[in-house]
Amino acid sequence: MDFFKYNNHTGVSSDLYLSANDKILLKVENVKYSISQQFFRWFFRDFLRRAFILGLDARREHKGYQIVRSAGLKSPDLYCWGVPLSPFNNILSFMMIEYKDNLTPGLTYFNSLSESKKVEFMTMLADEAVVLAKYGYVHRDFHLNNFLVEEGVGLFWIDTHFRKLSIYKKKKWKQLSSSLIDSKLEGEENKNIILSVFKKSFDVYS
Q1: 3-state SS class at 77
Q2: What is the CATH number assigned to the segment(s) 3-98?
Q3: Does the pLDDT at position 86 exceed 80?
Q4: Please, what is the end-to-end C-alpha distance for the chain in angstroms?
Q5: 3-state DSSP call for residue 173?
Q6: Are 89 and 42 in contact (CB under 8 A)?
Q7: Span 86-92, mean pLDDT?
Q8: Residue 2 — very low, low, confident or very high, per pLDDT cuts 50/70/90?
Q9: Does the global pTM surpass 0.85?
Q10: CA 62 – CA 56 distance, rounded (Å)
Q11: What secondary structure letter does DSSP report for 89?
């Protein structure tokens, strides 16, 4: 089956590819370091990670899809995941998920909105993050391209790398607030919108 580049996750290590029949979205996690230019980093962080933690990230994400559904949030169907056997392959892991042509990458959708609609979008994103947090988890890499958007329906989570929230109130609040990074949310103003929703929902932790 042929796949074509769908969207580049700027600043992160995953790429998206769309199947020629427009039915499957392939998410590929690439190695982070070059074997020829950064050998020691490649050996200790990519090679050994693949050798001893085979498919750990993909397994975590598979579990994350189950968490999303259990929390009552939406995600595409997950068809399969895997890792290459060769240690010299530039791919660390891959996942094949359901694709619907009425879903738009989060960043693309966000950039198409008016300023007032952008505030509404960030509030919706925050509300979903609150649902996940109340279920006991926080996102490890909270950025807009980890979501797809269906107009009139809402968000679909396509990256499900989660961290279990602490049972201790102060640590839990620190985990939630530190998950928000300006550069991944298109600016400090957007981060503050989400943070304000967090504060209202978890005022006991602030």
Answers
A1: coil
A2: 3.30.200
A3: no
A4: 50
A5: helix
A6: no
A7: 68
A8: confident
A9: no
A10: 10
A11: -
Domain with CATH 3.30.200 in the chain: 3-98
Q: How far is CA 142 from the centre of its chain?
A: 6
Distances in Å between the alpha carbon of 178 and those of 140, 142, 181, 191?
A: 10, 10, 7, 11
CA gap 30, 18 in Å, rounded = 16
Architecture of domain 103-205: Orthogonal Bundle (1.10)
Q: What is the pLDDT of residues 170-201, one digit of tens each?
A: 899 999 999 999 999 999 999 999 999 999 99
What are the start-end ranges of the H helices in the chain?
39-41, 48-52, 56-70, 106-111, 115-135, 169-178, 188-201
Q: How far is CA 14 from each of CA 28, 59, 66, 181, rounded to the nearest angstrom?
A: 5, 16, 21, 18
Per residue in 20-60, pLDDT tens? Answer: 888 888 888 776 656 666 666 666 555 666 555 555 666 77
Kindly state the DSSP code that residue 165 receives in the 8-state scheme: P
Residue 10 predicted with pLDDT over 50: no
What pLDDT score was predicted for residue 144? 92
* Residue recorded with tokens 């397994």: 59
What phi and psi values does residue 172 have, to the nearest 5 degrees? -60, -45
Q: What token pair was written down for 144? A: 């807009």
Q: For residues 129 and 125, give the distance between their C-alpha atoms in angstroms, rounded to a whole number.
A: 6
